[in-house]
């Protein structure tokens, strides 16, 4: 089963093609620091068999948090806690991914003013953000670079630039949010300029796999479509991006007709036309669908979100559904306790006498 086979990106070998998608938990200690919750929550999913664990988006600046209690990476003080989290993920057999981003006008912290490419609110009733100055844009680029360095110091294996879901870099890419008339807005090249500078700043600091998460469509007339990302994606590939993580939406308040695998066509399009690795995400809940996606080369990895919240051992469940076997922690096998302590395995006993073994 291709889904559960090891594969390698830029020298990093993953035990299978299943990643845990980044999802905000809003459970950080004051100041954006790793809490015990994160150690248990993400460690459990690593123990459960996922090859790559993405914690929630790590905020590159305090005024870029998606919501209260989000994790930060804007300070050197964050590194020790993140390093501890990475160490636990590694000990459980998985790789650790750092998705770094800035919320832009979607800032979820009430007492801080939001910033964006233009002074255009997300929707009626939302705060009007401050349009970033030239200096402010350069500060954002520098903050992404500093975050990448901290992610490297913390020991993360994969770096992902969050350019989706209506957050700051998505705002720059979308003509629905970027109304600038200077070199940071207008045509595709200008709207991409901030991401180009970020990738130029980050790639020399990051030798490992580099992903970019995108919203492949804005779902609104006049917004970005997968065809626009054929242009952006080619530039990403030229800049050393290894994988494009294909999500959608977020730039406007619209109702999305979502269904299992609804974002897969975009990942397939970019993979086929650009010759770049892609990730598929969004309502991928069954092992059969996940296997179909990777075995038919519609994407190179699948990112599992809510299904993995419900089942930390989603990968083991998937192996059962696909009628194959995977390596599992010895503690979860019948005689794991004896194996761990180098003791002889006991003789089998009748089933009604096994209760005292567990």
From TrEMBL:
Superkingdom of the source species: Bacteria
**SUPFAM superfamilies attached here?**
FMN-linked oxidoreductases
Q: Which GO terms describe its molecular function?
A: FMN binding; NADP binding; NADPH dehydrogenase activity
The record places domain NADH:flavin oxidoreductase/NADH oxidase N-terminal at 2-323
| Keywords, ordered alphabetically | Flavoprotein, FMN, NADP, Oxidoreductase
Check the record and name the Gene3D superfamilies matching this protein.
Aldolase class I
The answer on whether this UniProt entry bears the keyword Lyase reads no
Pfam families named in the record: Oxidored_FMN (PF00724)
Cofactor annotation? FMN
| Name of the protein in its database record | NADPH dehydrogenase
- Species name for this entry? Gluconobacter kanchanaburiensis NBRC 103587
